[in-house]
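FORM 7B: Structural annotation worksheet

SECTION A. Query
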Amino acid sequence: MLMERERSAVSGILMVVLLLALVAATILGFVATVRGMPKSEVGGPLVTFLVVLTLEVLAFTGLFAVQPNQGAVLQLFGKYAGTVKAAGLRWANPFYTKKRVSLRVRNFETGHLKVNDLDGNPIEIAAVVVWKVVDTAEACFQVDNYENYVHVQSEAALRNLATAYSYDSHEEAQMSLRANTAEVAAHLKTEIQERLLKAGVEVAEARISHLAYAPEIAAAMLQRQQASAIVAARQKIVDGAVGMVEMALERLARNKVVELDEERKAAMVSNLLVVLCGERGTQPVINAGTIYH
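SECTION B. Predicted structure
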């Protein structure tokens, strides 16, 4: 596998000064040489002057600029020659081809993908991926287009992740896309990173940005969630009501406020549970007799 080799490059400002001095010296030397010479003898010095001047102008094409957090990948006739990361104006062999690769942190959001979760329910899911290039040689030479590669592999990893979890958990120990966001994000980051190792890319963060049931089952799933919420709320209400009834009976017996037999206790428990668990406000009923008549 081709790995990045960082190399240094000559200061471009120094080379500009040097090349300008050489051009000036070449012109002055040519003028001094041909001064006073017969026109018939100027041909030889003129050819030499033109060749030298052409080489000096060609040397100017070796200048290139490197921005902060950017790398310039150098190639000589198709062979990798190294990567220059030092920012500023630099100079290298004019025959080097120079491809600039950004090393800055980048992010993108995947499209809204429609996939089936672990239970087979169709859902819509999207994620935000934060990434950067850490190996310019791998990014340029291991894959054809590293930016497109990052996008495609991230969506593939997201699809695979969605099939490994349920949208919502039906058991306390079961992980789900909606409830366990931190764990799911860590899993997604790891899976994307494994796919992008060969492209010289490091994933800084990956999180789900959109999660919803597909439109065709959204209404049914909403009713299911509402029913689950109602059952859970009723369970808490009943637990609280039973505790209050137990406390009332215990205090009545301890303080000897009234003596209740089993039948009257049952009637009291029934009345209290109706009052505490009923959805509507209770209405008093006047009983002129007793529970025995």
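SECTION C. Observations
The mean pLDDT is 84. The chain has three domains: 10-69+84-96, 106-213, 218-277.

SECTION D. Sign-off
Analyst initials: ____
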